[in-house]
Design brief:
Elements (H helix, E strand, L loop, with lengths): L2 E6 L5 E5 L18 E3 L27
Antiparallel strand pairs: 1-2, 1-3
């Protein structure tokens, strides 16, 4: 089940909620009971390799492009 990160606008706490994807945008009161919360955009699953240079060269990565 995916984990979603929320932040409370009232007290500023950040917390995780495990729920099915179909309920990703449902409200999630903070642990202190406040209802004014927002779901944060998280980059889970990204390895940070985007834009890293590729070894092997060329457009196909195998050096077959001359």
């Amino acid at each position: 089940m995916p984990t979603y990160e929320f932040r409370c606008r009232e007290c500023g706490s950040t917390y995780d909620v495990n729920r099915p994807m179909i309920a990703a945008n449902d409200p999630a009161p903070c642990p202190e009971g406040h209802d004014d919360t927002v779901k944060l955009l998280t980059m889970a699953g990204l390895s940070g390799r985007a834009g890293a240079p590729q070894a092997g060269g060329g457009c196909c990565g195998g050096g077959c492009c001359g």
